[in-house]
Specification:
The complex is a heterodimer of chains A (113) and B (109). Helix content of chain A is 0%, strand content 53%. With 113 residues, chain A is an all-beta fold. In chain B, 0% of the residues lie in helices and 57% in strands. In chain B, β9 and β10 form a beta hairpin. The chains are: A mainly beta (113), B mainly beta (109).
Chain lengths: 113, 109
């Protein structure tokens, strides 16, 4: 099976702009989670979707949002970008709704200038 | 609060055995997962413990003690390719997935 794919892989944006990142899970996986990874904070949970419903959300401001489509593909959006949003954004899919076994995509490296 | 504690760095010799510990404090607990991440790569799933005891997968084993809120990842017959960061993770009672800050494993030849 093909792995989790994320697009784009690299992105440079200016403060104040918005960005949309895309994730295609492994075929058959209905659970998709998003994480922000930075050297200082490690892997931080953004949100999780299961069957098009947001299951839960991490402690991030409302500028961070996401959705999942009927084919399980997911997008996350960050509006009004800040310098501190520069990070690696990782998407992971899971074969079950329990999410304890997650398969990560290569990530999108976002740089905000 | 909810947190996972891991050592920031561990150093071991090629061919040896190393143990990476993880202690957790969460309002609920549904099992402990372990992931490996090489520099520039994405995390890859290694193991999951829902119940107390040892789970073995090749050279890697993972242990959980729910009564002690403690788990560890054991890597045997270390190889240079095992140099990476290792993360423990839990899903807590609020249904959120929490990762530890990661343990950087350095392997000496």
């Amino acid at each position: 099976k093909a792995g989790v794919t994320q697009t784009p892989r690299y992105l440079i944006k200016t403060r104040g702009q918005q960005v949309t990142l895309s994730c295609s899970p492994i075929s058959g996986h209905r659970s998709v989670s998003w994480y922000q990874q930075t050297p200082g904070q490690g892997l931080q949970f953004l949100f999780e979707y299961f069957s098009e419903t947001q299951r839960n959300k991490g402690n991030f401001p409302g500028r961070f949002s996401g959705r999942q489509f009927s084919n399980s593909r997911s997008e996350m959006n960050v509006s009004t970008l800040e310098l501190g949003d520069s990070a690696l954004y990782l998407c992971a899919s899971s074969p079950s709704g329990e999410g304890y076994e997650q398969y990560f995509g290569p990530g999108t490296r976002l740089t905000v200038t | 609060g909810q947190s996972l504690e891991q050592p920031s760095e561990v150093t071991a010799v090629e061919g040896a055995i190393v143990q990476i510990n993880c202690t957790y404090q969460t309002s609920g607990f549904y099992g402990l997962s372990w992931y490996q991440q090489h520099d520039g790569g994405a995390p890859t799933f290694l193991s999951y413990n829902a119940l107390d005891g040892l789970e073995e997968t090749g050279r890697f084993s993972s242990f959980l003690s729910r009564s002690d809120s403690y788990g560890y990842l054991l890597l045997q017959e270390l190889q240079m390719k095992d140099s990476a960061s290792y993360f423990c993770a839990v899903r807590d009672r609020d249904d959120k997935i929490i990762f530890g800050k990661g343990t950087r494993l350095h392997i000496l030849p």
